[in-house]
Amino acid sequence: DSAVTFIKPGETLKASDINLTVKGADGRGALTVNGGVQYQGKPVKLAATIENLSRLTGKDGSAATLALTIPGGDIRFEGTVQQAKAIAASGTLDVAMRDIPNTLQWATGKAAGASIPTQLDLNTSLNVKSKQYTLKNTKLEVDGLETAGDITANLEGTVPAISGTLKFGMLDLNKLMKTP
């Protein structure tokens, strides 16, 4: 039985039933990590590939894929990653969260606030360079509220700079208001 327990004052985190296969860690081919783990009593599945480790630190980076399934959601990335001076990535990002409050409680051990949305679907063309994040051709749906557009976030300074254009169809504020 494979298990890891991390304990710090006031908090215990546990991963068990660890079943991960790592191939290519010698750097001669693609690096792949596949498998699953029970984290905080719930299943997590991971499939990740970096096609060429030697190109990862070069100017062009390497093709990469990530598929992560956590309780209540899925995260998928397909594109290019680079780790030279800072992390960089570009490609398609898909996030589908079906039960955000329960996912947050699982991840943090604390109940989510009453105003937290329940569902989120995101599809975007992501570009990350250091602390600059650009989301183009973004389609976002949160609890039935849909929007599309482009967003840029620059986290370099003391105060984050966020800019962009999002287009909404008919805006139904009743969907945003949670009744007690």
Please describe the structure with a list of short key phrases separated by commas or semicolons:
59% strand, eleven-stranded antiparallel beta sheet, 11 strands, mainly beta, 3 helices, globular, 180 residues, 9% helix
Please give a structural write-up.
- β1 and β2 form a beta hairpin.
- The chain has an eleven-stranded antiparallel sheet with strand order 1-2-3-4-5-6-7-8-9-10-11.
- The chain starts with a strand and ends with a helix.
- The chain has three helices and eleven strands; from the N terminus they run ββββαβββαββββα.
- By secondary structure, the protein is mainly beta.
- The chain is 9% helix and 59% strand.
- It has helices at residues 53-56, 100-108, 173-176; strands at 3-8, 11-23, 31-39, 42-50, 62-70, 73-83, 87-97, 120-129, 132-142, 145-154, 161-168.
